[in-house]
Amino acid sequence: MTTGTDVRQAAHAYVGQSGDAVRETFERAFFSAELERLLAEAPGGRVLDLGCADGMVRDLGGERVDEYVGIDLHPPPAETEGQFFAHDLGEGLGPVGDESFDLYFASFGVASHLAPEELERLCRDIAAHARPGSLVALEALGLFSLEWPSLWETPPGSKRALPYRLAAETRVHPWAPSELEGIFADAGIAPTRALDRSVQAGPKVGEGDYWPGLPPVRASLNDLLSGTIESLEALEAPLPPLPAHPAARVHHALVARRQELVDSERGLTPQALARAVWDLDPSTGGGFGHGLLAVGRVE
């Protein structure tokens, strides 16, 4: 399903976007907070960044990271601070040395840019390389995201893979939490929790590529963060008809809460309104967000 170019393009499609204030303001903060929690739970500060792109995880970790190693098909330039290895994650963990890491981390949906069998192999490799107690936190794309309702009932495999474009086109494979838990468990990684990211404002919400009629919430939040409050239609708009699925109830309920918020908080500054809308995202791990971070501990 993927190639090395796919994985490389995928990472930079996420972290290399320009003009995406949602990513810079809210999504980086999401990963910063979760990374702080993970490093507090990990047995040490040695971090392996899987699909590292420009080394965002190193920057967010700061002094909490004792040693940082990044893997990418084409790592950052040699003068970039940190240790990097050139490797295609579709071929497994790669040449990262014999010493185990305290945290194996992948952000911005990297796990979904691997075919199922590639992700299974990567998890087995991680479990074999790690020591008991090491943490594994891999983010995939959530199967029950509002972006692709047509996939909600599909089984893992080729029927679920879909073309995806941000700054570059690739193919992605969203996952349900129970499926990632199964992959972790089969590899010897005990699942501990999952966390949704960007439930209301995934990058594909409102573009019409996978499901027509979805309001462009992310574009509206970007406008608010830039100081524009001329139009709030996207934040108040109802959803189009969705499949009869439990995920539909989650998304409809969230829209109702957003409509109530926008109606009652019109006196807020644009930036404050954007923050209030973003904060409506539930602290769930049901696969309802654009991102689904699965966390486990090596047994």
Overview of the molecule:
The protein has helices spanning 4-15, 21-41, 56-61, 116-129, 177-187, 217-225, 233-236, 246-264, 270-278, and strands spanning 46-50, 67-72, 83-86, 103-106, 135-141, 162-165, 169-172, 189-197, 291-298. A hairpin with a 3-residue loop joins β6 (162-165) and β7. α4 (116-129) packs across α5 and α6 (217-225) crosses α9. With 299 residues, the protein is α/β, with parallel strands linked by helices. The chain has 9 helices and 9 strands.
Topology:
Elements: H1 4-15, H2 21-41, E1 46-50, H3 56-61, E2 67-72, E3 83-86, E4 103-106, H4 116-129, E5 135-141, E6 162-165, E7 169-172, H5 177-187, E8 189-197, H6 217-225, H7 233-236, H8 246-264, H9 270-278, E9 291-298
Parallel strand pairs: 1-2, 1-4, 2-3, 4-5
Antiparallel strand pairs: 5-9, 6-7, 8-9
CATH superfamily of the largest domain: Vaccinia Virus protein VP39
Q: Write down the CATH class of the largest domain.
A: Alpha Beta
Secondary structural class: alpha/beta
Strand order of the largest sheet: 3-2-1-4-5-9-8
| CATH fold-level name of the largest domain | Rossmann fold
Quaternary class: single chain
Structural features:
299 residues, alpha/beta, Rossmann fold, 2 domains, seven-stranded mixed sheet, 9 strands, 17% strand
In short:
The protein is α/β, with parallel strands linked by helices and 299 residues long. It has helices spanning 4-15, 21-41, 56-61, 116-129, 177-187, 217-225, 233-236, 246-264, 270-278, and strands at 46-50, 67-72, 83-86, 103-106, 135-141, 162-165, 169-172, 189-197, 291-298. Residues 2-13 have low confidence and may be disordered.
